[in-house]
């Protein structure tokens, strides 16, 4: 595995692990890290052998948000240059959010600002008990603009109002309570719990899981009306006649494991 600001490995089961590797700066990201993460995620998304993508980090922190040196450079940018720079982060979050593979964030330490955005763009988030979180932008005179759609979708408008405005620290317990993470486990159990979810996910059909993710995105925010109901009916009709669904149903009736397991 080559060294770098982002480490990527894929095992024989199709489980990819993407690891932030800047522990000396608490895995804060800069333009280079954002570009590398985006590129690696796109590659994994196009790899038919990849089933699950785990987002993790080395060192004491999960991700401290933007790198201070990078922030200093951006403070000297023109508005047009800042727009281009912010658009790169927006692209990264969109790629992660819409990845066809199931994504799991394993949060072993503090996650601040943009680091919270990364978590909210993942499908499943598991935190170590010692992890803590904060949307710190207002303390710097900034706003969490780019990450806001993902954070608001995850914790809702009410909690976003509180934490966007206060910038206060959120404990792992409170993070679970407000839906920022799905589970909190003892620090030493984080990897094991992640493996448990991987095993669960590998039981499902990969195409069905990708379609289920797309379904959530398309249904979210829409009222239950005729056009949506027609679309939903078309989706399940299309899936039912697919090779994967036919195999899944046959395996169930034959009391055997489907071919993807």
Features:
261 residues, 2-enoyl-CoA Hydratase, Chain A, domain 1, single chain, six-stranded mixed beta sheet, 10 helices, 2 domains, alpha/beta, three-stranded mixed beta sheet
Describe the structure.
- The protein is α/β, with parallel strands linked by helices and 261 residues long.
- The protein folds into two domains: 6-201, 2-enoyl-CoA Hydratase, Chain A, domain 1 (Alpha-Beta Complex), CATH 3.90.226; 206-254.
- The protein has ten helices and nine strands.
- The protein has helices spanning 31-46, 68-74, 79-97, 114-120, 148-166, 172-177, 190-201, 206-219, 226-240, 243-254, and strands spanning 6-10, 15-20, 52-57, 102-107, 111-112, 124-128, 132-134, 169-171, 183-185.
- The protein has a six-stranded mixed beta sheet with strand order 1-2-3-4-6-9, with helices on both faces. A three-stranded mixed beta sheet has the order 5-7-8.
- The longest helix is centred in the middle third of the chain and has 19 residues, at 79-97.
- The chain is globular, with a radius of gyration of 19 Å.
- 33% of the residues are buried.
- The mean pLDDT is 89.
């Amino acid at each position: 595995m080559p060294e770098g600001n982002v480490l990527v490995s894929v095992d024989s089961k199709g489980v990819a692990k993407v690891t932030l590797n800047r522990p000396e700066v608490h895995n804060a990201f800069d333009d280079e890290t954002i570009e590398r993460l985006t590129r690696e995620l796109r590659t994994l998304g196009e790899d038919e052998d990849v089933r699950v993508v785990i987002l993790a980090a080395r060192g004491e922190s999960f991700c401290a948000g933007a790198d201070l040196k990078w922030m200093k450079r951006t403070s000297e940018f023109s508005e047009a240059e800042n727009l281009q720079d912010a658009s790169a982060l927006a692209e990264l979050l969109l790629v992660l959010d819409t990845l066809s593979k199931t994504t799991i964030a394993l949060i072993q330490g503090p996650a601040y600002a943009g680091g919270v955005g990364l978590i909210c763009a993942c499908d499943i988030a598991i935190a170590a008990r010692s992890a803590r979180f904060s949307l710190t932008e207002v303390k710097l005179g900034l706003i969490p603009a780019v990450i806001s759609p993902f954070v608001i979708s995850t914790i809702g408008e009410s909690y976003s109002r509180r934490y966007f405005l206060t910038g206060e620290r959120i404990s792992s317990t409170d993070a679970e309570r407000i839906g920022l993470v799905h589970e909190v486990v003892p620090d030493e159990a984080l990897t094991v719990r992640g493996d448990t979810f991987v095993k669960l996910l590998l039981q499902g059909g990969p195409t069905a899981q990708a379609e289920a993710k797309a379904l959530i995105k398309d249904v979210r925010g829409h009222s239950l009306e005729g056009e949506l109901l027609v679309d939903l009916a078309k989706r399940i009709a299309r899936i039912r006649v697919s090779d994967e669904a036919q195999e899944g149903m046959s395996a169930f009736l034959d009391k055997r494991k489907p071919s993807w397991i």
